[in-house]
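Question (not urgent): is this output format expected?
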Amino acid sequence: MKKDVKKVVLAYSGGLDTSIILKWLGDEYGCEVVTFTADIGQGEEVEPARQKALNLGIKPENIFIRDLREDFVRDYVFPMFRANAIYEGEYLLGTSIARPIITKNLIEIAAQTGADAISHGATGKGNDQVRFEIGAYALNPNIKVIAPWREWDFDSREKLLAYAQKNGIDITRKPGKSPYSMDANLLHISYEGLVLEDPNHAPEDDMWRWCVSPKDAPNESEIIEITYKCGDPVAINGKEMSPAQILTELNRLGAKHGVGRIDIVENRYVGMKSRGCYETPGGTIMLKAHRAIESITLDREAAHLKDELMPRYASIIYNGYWFSPERRMLQAAIDESQKHANGTVRLELYKGNVSVIGRDSANDNLFNAAYCTFEEDSVYDQKDANGFIKLNALRFIIAGKGGRKN
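Got this back:
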């Protein structure tokens, strides 16, 4: 394949690993390299990646840096949260949902520059290699994919550092930089490796970067109100904001009150278990609030069907099938259910907890106090329940009278 690759687009963070990959691609494939750096809210400046790429010999016209924060939240995070997607009961899919937008832009830039391949820095053990490559083939079945971690013979950190030093690649560590393997975007930050490879070893206190410890959170709670339109949050405390602004503000509020830390062991798609720690403050608030607005606006059976479909939807995203027909089919059903998910939710944030304390919908509220009141009412005849119960118990009655023990 090496002779066939003339130009490759690399997902380039500007960090050590992808800088090594950038040089390695030129050495091993002898091809022209294009770099793509995505700003999806990782919290670090992305412009320095431009100078790093220039220093490594990349032509200015072959360096692409895109601010994708609004696109990321609007077109990927919000649709996922309409489904209340959560993987294996705990993981809010912060890394998983970031991969499709990066892949989409890699493919677009490949088409724009006439590249015949893309490359990424995911290892051969993780989920990301699957997410990048399945997404790429879904968008362009003719694209070639170069995964250096599955090809090169750098089998230790020392060999990587030696290659970097030999080729003049900056290996200076940033002051205070966490030694954990981390991934960050507007939805979350993740931590893997080091002591976390022992699932019985508690995370170190100084590992966490976003959220204060619930023990150190303010002693006074904070009440916020989120406004929803068609299942998406559009305002906080009455102030309308863009999707990225909404998530940024919820991250600030959640982190301040110690909301969103989790420590889990999950099942990777490639077959092994993996221990990871995550901080998802805004997402944790959004999940709670979205379920609250649905509780008063969704029909019972529609809500229950959504809950049945959700684990499958979450697995589809976790495993890298965002661009699949099954995800689009499920998304259409989910989005249909959100037409009436309009209104406001009040929440109280306090020492790691998010509590719903109110929900209302001016035009789509299915909660009718006249029917469910414990006081006297004139709309519901309680005698009607007799036939309802008998009909639903009829199969047990018939079986029991026929001698069958239930």
